[in-house]
Amino acid sequence: MKRIALGLGRRIRAAPLGSLRNQLLRWLLAPLVLLVALNTFSLYRDAMDAADMAYDRSLLASTRALAERVAMRDGQVVADVPYVALDSFETDTLGRIYYRVGGLKGETVSGYDDLPRVPADVPRSELYPALVRFYHATYNGEPVRIAALLQPVFDDSMRGIALIQVGETLDARYALSRRILMGTLLRQAILVLAVATLVWVAVRLVLRPLMQLKDEFETRPLSDLSNVDQALVHKEVRPLVATLNGTMARMQHLIASQRRFIADASHQLRTPLTVLKTQAELALRENDPEAMRAIVRSIAGTTDSAVHLANRLLTLARVEHGGQGDMAEVNLPAVVRQVGLDLALPAVQKNIDLALDAPETLAVRGQAMMLHELVSNLVDNALRYTPPGGSVQLAVRQAAHGVILEVQDSGPGIAPAERDKVFMPFYRAAATMEANPSGTGLGLSIVRDIASLHGAEVSLSDAASGAGLKVTVLFAPVATSVLS
Global pTM? Predict the structure, then answer.
């Protein structure tokens, strides 16, 4: 049953919502029609009960009028019913009336002998101060309502109880019930129609601000991402408008970052491409093979710098767009080891001592590809700015307040006054420009953005040896780890 309920809930959520106006009208009018139907039935029942009481009172009056003509003579019950009275009882403009007067022993004194007798389970009516019972029966193939009155009779010789029954067909009651029903239905239909009209008008008025909001968005230029005034809509819709404003603000930021990226990329790539074009023109004019080889070597170096810059720009763009993939537990020491293996050749070529101090497993929450890019940028920067024969120390350790990644080099370092500026794209510290003039100024900017994506903090300080730079990345602790 639980699976069925969950499946039904998913199908309901997946169903298209359709028109808000139509849904409001359905949810308002459908219960209203049901309540009106129940009210109509209740009113009809109440009206019929009132009509039955009125007809029963009239029937009792006829029974009492007949009982006044019943008396005891010489020990026998007699009914002095003149012809005019009999005619009035036997014929009625709204239906047929039947009567019967029973004697002390149940014999028929006057009237219709085959009039249905009183059932044994019919209780006495508590509505009238008389020994009267009302019941339904069938007589001559027609349904009838009968009042049975016990009338005391007596003379000088004896006393007894006579039974006076007066029945009438239900034609008059049926006619009255039809009139009551039709009148009730007509009034309720008019009420439903009036309420439906008012609800329709009210829904249109209430939804008018939403329609105006829709029209405003439809008529806006594509470049207009300004906020919408929340006062234009109802209080319940303002959180939605606030969310839309937040989304448009993020879109503005995204568009601005894209424009900035395009401007920066075009500016930064223009220089190496110009140099390549110049070098190629020199190579075309050069006839000396040795000079041409030197120019080709310069072209290869410029190409490497351009490729490195393009890769850094693409990485920066990917990070600014939130990276790829979902967050999961990543074994950070394994990522650092893989980066160390990938960059081992440049370290060997410069005779740099590349060392790692880390446990086998230590989990952080993040995206494995982005973390690999973060560590690669840190290690690549350290190797580029460390002179030959220097050292680069990598460390991963658990701390009380999280997981720490450290990268220390023995390069020129960064002056304290410039440590905040080097995280800006394309900014390069004076010492680093001297050590590596071909740098891009994007490495630490990429590191900061990836760290922000993972909720980590990046800080710069002097290396433990006093010479060089130490970059510390502090990751939030992982509550539970599935790594083994």
Answer: 0.46
